[in-house]
Structures are given as structure tokens and as C-alpha cells.
Amino acid sequence: MATSGSVYNTYGLDGHGNEIIIDHAGSQGLYVQVYDDKVVIKGRDFAKKEWIDEYHHEIPVEDATAPVENATDLKKLVEQYEEGGEFSGDNTAHMLKLHMNAVKRFEDQEKVEKILKHLKGFEKLLDQHREKQWISEKAYDVLKLSTEMLIKKWQ
Length: 155
What we know:
Strand content: 25-35%
Mean pLDDT: 85
């Protein structure tokens, strides 16, 4: 199955943080393909009839649907991405797993404030490693979303 969505006119920023039309004839959007084992999301410039190479993501269905109930589940995701070569930083996986070990300790003790503090620290760590390009976009997106879900659970 495939579907697409498009926005007529191409928008950009005006230098003051406001959106303006930068191309009245432009039309860009997303092309989404759903398969049994993955979801593919691609950026498309419909007016120019070409793909936007910078926006192409494939998300395995097990990653997209795996429920994350606790720090152990999140640590397992980190390990899967480590095995899949999704980290390029020397200590990225190690640091992420250490963070989840701390969260697990606080989950076992039901110390909600400490859990939330460390989950928010985990989010910052993900952001830092993304900025340094030490984590793939796929791994970042799934880990970030999973962390947000855990934060909501504990709030």
C-alpha cells in the first residue's frame, strides 16, 4: 500500500522565524509505503517530479510497534540498534545503556522523580549524539519516541 500527501506552494522561513511562500508553483510532501515488515517514508518534490534525498526513512515494523513499558525494554532497543550498526560514536551505546541501568534501579525503587530526571537526561543524551551524528536517524527517532512514552507513563 502506498499513499502520499502534498502541500501546494513551498514554504520556508523569512529570516525572522515566520513562514512565507518561497515557491508559488512548488509542491512538496511525503510518500508513505506500508509493507508487512517495514514502513518507508520518502520526501517528494511533486512539482519537480523528484525525490528529496535528504528525507528517506525506513522503519522496521517491529521497531515501530514494539511496546516500551520500562527501562529494560528501552535498553533492549539500544542493544538491537547497537547490533545493527546504528551507532557510530565509540561510547554511544555504552552511555545509553548506563542511563537505562540507572532508570531501572529507580523503577525498582519506584522513585518517580529520579526516573523522570534520568529519562529527560537520556533524551538530552540522544539529542547530543544526534547532533554529533553518532546515532542514525532511525535509531534516534524510535528511541526518542519510546523515551517520550515512558516519560508520559511516569508523569
